[in-house]
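Morning!

This is the sequence you dropped in the shared folder:
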Amino acid sequence: MRKDRKKTEQIKRISKYEEYFDQVAEAVKKLEEALEAFDSVQPQLKELTEYYESDTWKKDYEDDEKGLIPKDIKRGVLSEDGVYDLLEEIKELKERKILK
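The structure's back. C-alpha cells below.
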C-alpha cells in the first residue's frame, strides 16, 4: 500500500511540474514573439520619438487645440500624455532589462 501511495505522489509531483514547465515555456514563447515584434517597429519608434520632440509636433498639437485638425481623424499622438507615457513605458522596460 505504501508503495502505491508513493507512486501516486510521484505522479502528482511530476504532473504538477510538467504543468509548470508548459506554462513557463508558453510565457517564454510569447515573450520572444513580443520582443521580435518590438524589434520590428524600431524605425517607427525612432521616427515617433523625433516627431514628438519636434516643433512640428508642437504645431500640430496647438492646431488641434484650436480645432484646426478634423475631429473625425484618430489623433492620439497629439494627446499631451499619450506618446510621453508610451516612451516612459519603454524606458521602464529597458531599466528592467527586458528590452535593449
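Headline: Residues 48 and 83 are 8 Å apart (CA to CA).

More detail when I'm at my desk.
O.
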